[in-house]
Design a protein that fits this description.
With 178 residues, the protein is mostly helical. It has 8 helices and no strands. Helices cover 70% and strands 0% of the residues. Helix 2 runs parallel beside helix 4. The N and C termini lie far apart (32 Å).
Amino acid sequence: MGDFELSGDELRAVARYALLAAQEVLPVFEDACPGDRRPRAAIEAAREFADGARRSRLQRAASLDAHRAAREAGTEPARLAARSAGDAASAAYLHPIARASQVGHVLRAAASAARVAELGAGDDRAVGDAALARWHRLADLTVVDVLRRYPAPPTARNRVAELVAALDTALRRTSTSD
């Protein structure tokens, strides 16, 4: 039991959202780490869940493997891409507890994709901000509703956390008529 309920459909909406981001940056990881299929396997596990399969050990194990791949990747963009894949797979297990740390599980894949875009443009923050605006538009109202059940994220300690906080603020301002 948690502090509130999260339905399977809501978890799937969050997984689909994270999956979009993870799929977009997967080539960054695969270019840097050819032959390492762990992030791709996490994306496939996330896709299965998002498409209606029951959550299972598959998502949990694939997420852990993708996060291990992130720790082993040699570049920040590759680490962020692998972590996004892990985040997409773990969305099936988002905790229904009112803790700000959970916001990262909803938004970190999109924020990481924005950071990868920034880094690909020579660390241009305007590129990251533009990517965040796109991720804001791509979040459906179910994702926004889930996000609003959690407290705002903690103070940012790094650029990805700054992007999470900025996306969180923008999404919480989203009108139900948007």
